[in-house]
Amino acid sequence: MSLRRIVMHWSAGGHTANSSDKRHYHEIVEGDGNRVEGDHLPEANNSTADGRYAAHTRAFNTGAIGLSMAAMSGAKERPFKKGKYPITPVQLNVFVEMVAEYADTYNIDITRETILSHAEVEITHDVKQKGKWDITWLPGMVKPGHPIEVGDHLRELIKSKQAENFEESMPKMASSDIDSFSEKLASHISEFLKTYKT
Ligand SMILES: [Zn+2]
Question: For residue 21, how far is its CA from the centre of ligand 1 (angstroms)?
Answer without folding.
Answer: 11
